[in-house]
Write a structure and sequence with these properties.
The chain is mainly α. 73% of the residues lie in helices and 0% in strands.
Amino acid sequence: MDSFLNQYSETFTKELEMFGITEETVRQRTEEPPYQAVIDNLRKVVEMSAPIDKMRVIAQSSSLIVACVDKFWEDVIYKLDRKKDLTLDADSLLMIFIYVTFKAEISQMYAHLKMANQFATPSLKQSKLGYYTSTMEVSLEQVICFEED
């Protein structure tokens, strides 16, 4: 997977240079592994005992994903005057959730998600917390399928 990311990174870097964004700028912004703040936050789900707290950690992880994307592009996107292009759609968010789920390596994550869903009220399941918990569940299923292959 790392070789795929490296190849994608090289292609992406060349495209950025067309907009005057140097490889050095990209290197500085990727010194820390991508989405490390999200991965660290997601690992807190194990420490939470209440289902709603587990759901809050997952929802907070989603907010951190947006913050990581904004931080990476903070001055570049304003130079290009394309702030609207930074909007994450559900598919992009799911892909990032799959990545952070894979990298977080949380043992028994499926049990934590099932517990949160089992004890959540119907209205909570239909809320923003429920949406992000479902997104995490789908991403975990993708990671499990990936690891089985």
